Amino acid sequence: MTADTEDYLSTEVATMSISVAQLRHIFGLQREVTGNVAYHDEQTIVYPSGTNCVVYNIDQKQQKFIQGSEKSRLMTAMALSQNRRYVAIAERGDKEKGMSCGF
Q1: In the prediction, which pLDDT does 16 show?
Q2: Which SS3 state, helix, strand or coil, does residue 90 take?
Q3: Using CA atoms, how far apart are residues 103 and 84, in angstroms rounded to an integer?
Q4: 100 CB neighbour count, 10 Å cutoff
Q5: Are residues 59 and 52 in contact, defined by beta-carbon separation less than 8 angstroms?
Q6: Which of 24, 28, 47, 72 is the most exposed place for a label (fewest CB within 10 A)?
């Protein structure tokens, strides 16, 4: 490989842009998850879909996502704390484990 070719390749790599995929909408509900729909407040519901938890604002028609862990295969249970600040999620993967997140 010549020096000119090396310079060209290093320039090409430096100018390449990187695209990142982001969730915009999730459709579906996991019926088999214990406690699968909960009200966070008057306008917001929380429900599992795939390995994610969806936080949906009914008035604004907007979704936010709580992503499951990388090794999660499916969500088995979900519960909201009494003060509705935290959601607890049980996931199944290679080994069962739990996870909790705050709003």
Answers
A1: 56
A2: strand
A3: 8
A4: 12
A5: no
A6: 24
Q: Which residue intervals of 1-103 are DSSP H helices?
A: 3-15
Name the amino acid, one letter, at 37.
V
* pLDDT tens for each residue of 59-92: 999 999 888 888 888 888 889 999 988 888 888 8
Give pTM, 2 decimals: 0.67
The gap from C-alpha 94 to its chain's centroid, in whole angstroms, comes to 19
Q: In the predicted model, is pLDDT for residue 56 greater than 80?
A: yes
Please tell me what DSSP assigns to residue 8.
Answer: H
Joined together, the tokens standing for residue 28 give: 């579906």
Sign of CA dihedral 70, 22, 45, 102: positive
